[in-house]
Write a structure and sequence with these properties.
ten-stranded mixed sheet; alpha+beta; globular; 11 helices; two-stranded antiparallel ribbon; 408 residues
Amino acid sequence: MKHTIIMAAALCCSLAVSAQQRPQQAAGPDFKFTTVDSVAITPVKNQGNAGTCWAYSGLAFIESEILRTQKKAYDLSEMYVAFNTYMERAEKAVRTSGDVSFGQGGDFGDILEVMSRIGMVPDSEMPAGAMYGKNISAHSELSALVDRMVEAATRLRTMQVSPDGEQLYKKAIRAVHEVYLGKAPEKFKYEGKEYTPQSFAKSLGVNAKDYVSLTSFMHHPYSTGENLGVGYAMEAQDNWRWALSYNLELDDFCQLFEDAIKNGYTILWGSDVSEAGFGRQGVGVFNDEVKVESTVSSDQIRLIGADQATAPKADNLPKPQKVVTPEERQAMYDGKQTTDDHAMQIFGIAKDQWGQKYFMVKNSWGNTSGKYQGIYYVTPEYVRAKTLNILINKAALSANLKAKYGIK
């Protein structure tokens, strides 16, 4: 099936940095991509200088779900999701005396948890950068302050409490987040109707129970046989809620990507994009000529300042792609060559003029990133090698797959 892609140019800013920061890339070939199948998406956004890819991709995924069910485009607030997630992550870090880390990152479970329990607001109520006169995030200063506040709170032996019963450290952390992200509204008007965050979220028609996180690694049993229906908490720093994922055999895991798109569903994709094969010009490949790098991940903040001298490999004429085995994939994860690095939305399938297949990926680095207005083209072999986990609507899965893994 074919679906219309909803795009707009006014929401995003450039990611350009100086030549001293990022070496000039050699020009790659002029790829000519032909869309084979695609699902409706909302406009590409720019997460700016902030580790909030999880919020941008997560809400992009939810917005596509609403487009599918209601045929209506929404622009939801990433800062509202980030604000509430950071408050709860700070509390968990303090409760565990710092054993749970605090940072700008997040996980797919954060999107569903905030929407189902706390609510949602349109982007106009908490737009990125508004508190410092911008239309794009810049969270370095926020992080420098709050990270140290949370770290100090984890070391407190007793906690002071305000007369209303709330611990003072929570008030302090909330106040700093409100200064930089904005204050979460209790009520607001949208299209002439008054809402609370809870009533607005309910009006979107999204049910957290309809979605499932899936992965494929060998250090836990597959969710089959005597472990039918059993999930496990993926060991990633930003999975601080310890959300569970079903563990699928690798071939089953990879097949569902294409099946989902053909059935009209997008995929929320958690992946490692620090490899040389993930070209900053907008193409991602995985073959024997692409060196697998081991790097410290910190999303776009790291990517725009890193030495990308090897990146043009990904934008050369496509070579035969390497299909990794489950053992090779596991070794990259165990060796920290595949890390919890970036989140994006997979929404389509395309082919280039040489017949190579690609997944179409909506990124959150602005519509001037890469050569294709913020859309990236990534081979199935790259997805097979470097995916950590995905979030998907259960309805996108075949009956046989759900029965095999006990997904209800």
